[in-house]
Design brief:
Helix content: 55-70%
Distance between the termini: 55 Å
GO cellular component, one term: plasma membrane
Shape: elongated
Pfam families: PTS_EIIC
Keywords: Cell membrane, Membrane, Sugar transport, Transmembrane, Transmembrane helix, Transport
Number of domains: 1
Strand content: under 5%
InterPro entries: PTS_EIIC, PTS_EIIC_3, PTS_Sugar-EIIC/EIIB
Radius of gyration: 17 Å
Subcellular location: Cell membrane
Length: about 210
């Protein structure tokens, strides 16, 4: 299938991850809008990886580098935008009471990849103050996860895991118990935090003005 092959390129992964964020920025559920691609193509890749592993018990035989759950494992920790990194940045360096209040409310849910309180509470939607990290963090994290998988540092994702599984643990389980996959996921969370941090600090100044 040509579309399956096309979907496995790094450029396709980056583009799709970016489009999910772009739709969300305008208040549309990016994953639902792109479900025909996310589920119809990458979901098939996940199912085929699962079937091949069940038949061979050999990770080296898995045909697809990137699957539906790869997005959740490496580019959606805490929800779209990897906002768990944003929440941590707010706790550490935000001086804005409104942002800190949102973070306190959102943190327990963020651990389970639910972040609507952040998206609509801060808000992220239609907020130019946060558009840059919102759009670039997930593609960067997806790139790291993709390259680590393509290089053989971590195995491809081949198991379906509930999307509410916490970051790190999700990648560990989805790869059949790869500690390195869990570490890559947590590394991406650190990357997210570092990218969100200067924008959180900048928001302090905007509030002060």
């Amino acid at each position: 299938m040509p579309l399956m092959g096309l979907s496995q390129g790094l450029g396709s992964v980056i583009l799709l991850t970016f489009l999910v964020q772009l739709f969300w920025f305008f208040g549309l559920h990016g994953h639902n809008v792109l479900a025909p691609v996310m589920d119809g193509i990458y979901g098939v890749a996940l199912n085929e990886n699962t079937a091949i592993y069940e038949a061979t018990k050999d990770i080296a035989q898995l045909p697809w580098t990137w699957t539906r759950s790869s997005f959740d494992a490496y580019a959606q920790m805490g929800g779209s935008g990897v906002t768990l990194g944003l929440i941590i940045a707010i706790f550490l360096l935000s001086k804005r009471e409104d942002h800190r209040t949102i973070a306190k409310l959102a943190a327990p849910m963020g651990v389970f990849n639910i972040n609507e309180p952040v998206i609509f509470g801060m808000p992220i939607v239609l907020n130019p103050q946060f558009v840059i990290p919102w759009l670039i963090v997930p593609p960067i994290c997806a790139t790291i996860g993709y390259l680590a998988t393509a290089a053989g540092l971590i195995p491809p994702v081949f198991l379906a895991v509930p999307w509410i599984t916490p970051p790190g643990l999700f990648a560990y389980l989805a790869t059949g118990g790869s500690f390195m996959a869990g570490l890559v996921s947590l590394f991406n969370l650190l990357v997210s935090f570092l990218i969100w941090l200067p924008f959180v600090i900048s928001a302090n100044k905007v509030k002060a003005d």
